[in-house]
From TrEMBL:
<feature type="domain" description="NB-ARC">
    <location>
        <begin position="172"/>
        <end position="215"/>
    </location>
</feature>
<dbReference type="InterPro" id="IPR044974">
    <property type="entry name" value="Disease_R_plants"/>
</dbReference>
<dbReference type="InterPro" id="IPR002182">
    <property type="entry name" value="NB-ARC"/>
</dbReference>
<dbReference type="InterPro" id="IPR041118">
    <property type="entry name" value="Rx_N"/>
</dbReference>
<dbReference type="InterPro" id="IPR055414">
    <property type="entry name" value="LRR_R13L4/SHOC2-like"/>
</dbReference>
<feature type="domain" description="Disease resistance N-terminal">
    <location>
        <begin position="5"/>
        <end position="90"/>
    </location>
</feature>
<dbReference type="Pfam" id="PF23598">
    <property type="entry name" value="LRR_14"/>
</dbReference>
<dbReference type="InterPro" id="IPR027417">
    <property type="entry name" value="P-loop_NTPase"/>
</dbReference>
<dbReference type="InterPro" id="IPR036388">
    <property type="entry name" value="WH-like_DNA-bd_sf"/>
</dbReference>
<keyword id="KW-0547">Nucleotide-binding</keyword>
<dbReference type="Pfam" id="PF18052">
    <property type="entry name" value="Rx_N"/>
</dbReference>
<dbReference type="InterPro" id="IPR032675">
    <property type="entry name" value="LRR_dom_sf"/>
</dbReference>
<feature type="domain" description="Disease resistance protein winged helix">
    <location>
        <begin position="417"/>
        <end position="491"/>
    </location>
</feature>
<dbReference type="InterPro" id="IPR042197">
    <property type="entry name" value="Apaf_helical"/>
</dbReference>
<feature type="domain" description="NB-ARC">
    <location>
        <begin position="225"/>
        <end position="323"/>
    </location>
</feature>
<keyword id="KW-0677">Repeat</keyword>
<feature type="domain" description="Disease resistance R13L4/SHOC-2-like LRR">
    <location>
        <begin position="565"/>
        <end position="878"/>
    </location>
</feature>
């Protein structure tokens, strides 16, 4: 990954020196020479990265290059930011100014020497290239320079059509479905793609289809010696033409197994006719872009993990002897242990087979118990039987090795997160941007997309390559949450350790730490993830000499963690001089102040103290001029915020506390890069400032007092407000209700609207908002006639009605015929005054999900639910016990919902 690091450093340094050129004039020559050395190095890093897995000396060389690149970036930016800070402060006293100039001269000389020393290190490393036989590659890594680790592993895993696997489990239904698309004329597709992560059994499924004697008839023709020689003498073009004619004239099944890249298909495509053919291609791949071939009648089949029973059947077939005299008690105990161990496999056939290979030679229950104690390592590495059953990690690592260099650091960053963690994509993409990882991809897009949009594209690529799983998608189709398979995470940590990318520390009690993965770490520690538990007595180990090189510090662990002493709880963070990312969320249960030393972390791009009990923030925050994301959403009562945010001109995302105060009005008008602004208060902020935030896309505003000259302000800010895509308005009292709706009326481009607090009437032209797809009404107290506005919103797909969304005397909520034409999800919760949800025939024709919760006034379900023929999922929970009884299978209302495929009926409420 040295190629990614060096490319990222070069881009970051270019960006910084362009912005702060006048403050770097004293060392500009040294900086230019250092950049040139890194540029000369870039071409050799493709070969070095490809070979370091098999050559320890190359791995050491690569680690030294990474460290030199990071050190260069740190020195240049540290000096530049220090000069910027001094110039802006200025000095009135002439004598002090002369003394300062002298000190600056000494500092300049020192920094110049440091940059030259690093440049010499890089130059010496480049001079040693010949010794390591590292070549300069200007083409794709696989184009030359010897066999890479990826190529070797692919060759070792090469599949052959004559090999028939025994003990295949869980593929029967897959075979039946795919056969229909391969041979049945009414369903047949030109291309049938099997897509899924490594180890899911794609090749096994392809073999099962190839050898399916019920459906496929083979006519094998042996070539003569003359024909073999003729083929050998053909050019690639001649072979492609010959194959093309055969496939067009005959009905053939062609199996292309394990195609990794779309470029591979582009080379092969000319050999396969696209029209006037009855031949079919069966293709397996880990890459969705390959699976969905353009200009082909393709069917995409995503292979799923095995369920619990299928997993046990596979393990049993491969690990337990078929002897008839097996002891029943022993079998029962082994099954119990086996089922527990299978939870670590998460339905991945590769992992189950690796585990079975280890267990197959272990006959006693005691031996199974010993494997059970350390099952994760057995699955990951296949320890004890490496020669026969290699672990799952190296197979999964093929996907990592095949990643383009700009995606590798993005993937490795996922290693920060704990096992089974649901990852917020919004936060993850901001972290990637803050670390400068997206610069590598931005070069392809230019300025047509925001960095956050590019980051989401990178995440989508990782999803398409089956390294990341989608957790939950939003109303517009974007991914909101994601996760990674446990074994993929293991592989991620292993690679992160090999690349010196990340270290994980567990519990900092008594200076003990545990480093994830066992590969030898080379180079300085640049990123730390700290997992706190009840034994931890502090956040970080102070006076640790490695702290000064850490760029990313993320904390995970207990909510409302209570250390033995609050004294200096956050102060040790001051040792992290070049920190770019600091995420300390949900840890401090007691009230604390954020220490003034936080202002020394001038490199910070991302700072989140969300859900901590912080009551006061220091003025030194104004020193953090590089901040892109600042998350102040703390749990304290009324928080004191210094009026220094205007100094953070690079800010892109600002999350203010829900309840805060400040001296005067917060000045925000010069934050030209700001995209997200949460909890803007009409009391402590000037709405005029919003008009100058031309990049603003998400706004949450708290209207708590009457705004003077609002119409004039809205008129002047109209073009900016129309660019907002997500709007949340909290109305604190009835006095400001009308003005809140005026704000809504000025944001006509919104996709998402959330209203909280008294709102008797919605804007009458809401139906003319072209993009509005998601609406949430929370304790608004709408009058009953407002339902007419809601049901005529043409593009609304998600509607959430919470609390007294309608006024207290609204007892019946009617969904009229033809209303809500596009609605797909309806959520009703805590609307206690409602006694009937009436659904007329023809209402909500597109509804597929309905969730009703905590509505104590409802005692029965409407008969109109029978009309919702597209309803796929119905959730009823925490309702009256009487209603819960009526909708059971033997209940009198069950006929109303029996057509719904997925019924989730939770516990009744306590009322």
């Amino acid at each position: 990954m040295a190629e990614a690091v060096v490319s990222s450093v070069l881009q970051n340094v270019r960006e910084f020196t362009t912005q702060e050129a006048k403050f770097l004039s004293g060392v500009s020559h040294q900086v230019e020479v250092a950049q040139t050395e890194l540029q000369l190095m870039q071409g050799f890093l493709k070969d070095a990265d490809a070979r370091q897995g098999q050559d320890e000396t190359v791995r050491i060389w690569v680690a030294k290059i990474r460290d030199a690149a990071y050190d260069l970036e740190d020195v240049i930016q540290t000096y530049g930011l220090k000069v910027v800070s001094k110039k802006k402060r200025g000095l009135k006293n002439v004598l002090k100014r002369f003394a300062c100039i002298f000190k600056e001269g000494v500092e300049l000389h020192r920094i110049g020497n440091e940059i030259e020393n690093i440049t010499t290190r890089i130059s010496d490393l480049r001079s040693s290239l010949q010794k390591y036989n590292i070549k300069e590659l200007t083409t794709d890594r696989d184009g030359g320079g010897g066999e890479s680790s990826l190529q070797l592993h692919k060759r070792l895993r090469r599949s052959y059509s004559h090999v028939v696997e025994r003990d295949v489990v869980g593929l029967e239904s897959n075979v039946e479905e795919l056969v229909m698309h391969l041979v049945k004329d009414e369903n047949r597709h030109q291309v049938v793609s099997v897509w899924g992560m490594g180890g899911l059994g794609k090749t096994t499924l392809a073999r099962q289809l190839y050898h399916d004697k019920k459906e496929f008839c083979f006519k094998l023709i042996s070539t003569t010696k003359e024909q073999k020689q003729e083929i050998k003498d053909m050019t690639d073009d001649e072979i492609a033409k010959k194959l093309f004619l055969v496939l067009r004239e005959m009905r053939c099944l062609v199996v292309l197994d394990d195609i990794w890249r779309i470029n591979t298909w582009n080379i092969l495509e000319i050999a396969f006719p696209n029209a006037e053919t009855e031949s079919t291609i069966l293709l397996t791949t880990r890459n969705q872009a390959v699976a969905t071939l353009p200009n082909r009648n393709a069917f995409l089949h995503k292979l799923q993990p095995l369920n619990e029973n299928e997993s046990w059947n596979l393990l049993e077939k491969k690990a337990i002897s078929e002897r008839a005299d097996i002891d029943l008690g022993m079998y029962t105990k082994k099954r119990e242990l086996g089922m527990n161990m299978l939870r670590h496999c998460k339905g991945l056939p590769l992992a189950i087979i690796v585990l079975a290979g280890v267990l197959a030679r272990k006959n006693t229950v005691g031996e199974w118990e010993r494997v059970h104690e350390n099952v994760h390592e057995y699955i990951r590495r296949g320890i004890g039987h490496e020669e026969e059953y290699e672990g799952a990690s190296w197979v999964l690592a093929l996907s990592y090795d095949d990643l383009p260099y700009y995606l590798k650091p993005c993937f490795l960053y996922l290693g920060h997160y704990p096992e089974d963690c649901i990852i917020s994509v919004s936060t993850l993409t901001k972290l990637w941007v803050a670390e400068g990882l997206i610069f590598l991809r931005q070069q392809r897009y230019g300025s047509e997309k925001t960095m956050e949009d590019i980051a989401r594209d990178c995440l989508s690529e990782l999803v398409e390559m089956c390294l990341v799983q989608v957790g939950k998608s939003g109303s517009t189709g974007t991914i909101k949450y994601c996760r990674i398979h446990d074994l993929v995470r293991d592989m991620c940590l292993l690679k992160a350790k090999e690349e010196s990318f990340l270290q994980i520390n567990y519990s900092l009690q008594k200076n003990t730490s545990f480093v994830a993965a066992e590969a030898a770490q080379l180079g300085k520690i640049r990123r730390l993830a700290i997992y706190l538990n009840e034994n931890a007595d502090r956040l970080v180990s102070s006076r640790d000499e490695t702290n000064g090189d850490v760029r990313s510090l993320l904390f995970f662990g207990l909510k409302e963690w209570r250390p033995k002493s609050e004294k200096g709880l956050l102060s040790p963070l001051k040792d992290f001089k070049v920190l770019r990312v600091l995420k300390v969320e949900g840890l401090c249960a007691r009230e604390v102040d954020l220490p003034g030393e936080i202002g020394n972390m001038v490199h910070l791009r991302f700072l989140s103290v969300k859900n901590n009990n912080i009551k006061r923030f220091p003025p030194s925050l104004g020193n953090l001029v590089c901040l892109q994301t600042l998350n102040f959403r703390v749990q304290s009562g009324r928080v004191v915020i210094p009026n220094v945010i205007m100094k953070m001109k690079q800010l892109r995302h600002l999350y203010l506390p829900w309840n805060y105060r400040t001296k005067g009005k917060l000045e925000l008008s010069n934050l030209g890069h700001l995209q997200t602004l949460y909890n803007l208060s009409s009391e402590y902020c000037d709405l005029k400032d919003v008009g100058r935030l031309t990049n603003l896309r998400k706004l949450r505003i708290r209207v708590s007092s009457s705004l003077q000259n609002l119409e004039e302000i809205l008129k002047s800010t109209g073009s900016t407000l129309n660019r907002i895509r997500s709007l949340i308005v909290f109305v604190e009292n009835n006095i400001s209700e009308e003005q809140a709706m005026q704000i809504v009326s000025s944001c006509r481009g919104i996709y998402k609207l959330k209203l909280q607090g008294p709102t008797a009437e919605l804007p009458k032209d809401l139906r003319n908002y072209p993009n509005l797809t998601k609406l949430e009404l929370d304790y608004c107290g709408l009058s009953e006639d407002q339902m007419g506005i809601l049901e005529n919103l043409p593009n609304l797909t998600i509607l959430r009605l919470l609390g007294e969304a309608f006024e207290e005397n609204t007892k019946i909520l009617v969904f009229s015929k033809g209303g809500f034409p596009s609605l797909e999800f309806l959520y009703v919760s805590k609307m206690h005054q409602i006694i009937e949800l009436r659904v007329e025939e023809g209402a909500m024709p597109s509804l597929c999900r309905l969730k009703i919760k905590y509505c104590k006034g409802l005692t029965t379900l409407t008969d109109g639910l029978r009309y919702l023929t597209n309803l796929k999922e119905l959730t009823i929970t925490r309702m009256r016990r009487e209603l819960h009884c009526r909708i059971q299978e033997d209940g009198e209302d069950f006929y109303k919902i029996q057509h719904v495929p997925s019924l989730v009926i939770g516990e009744p409420g306590d009322f």
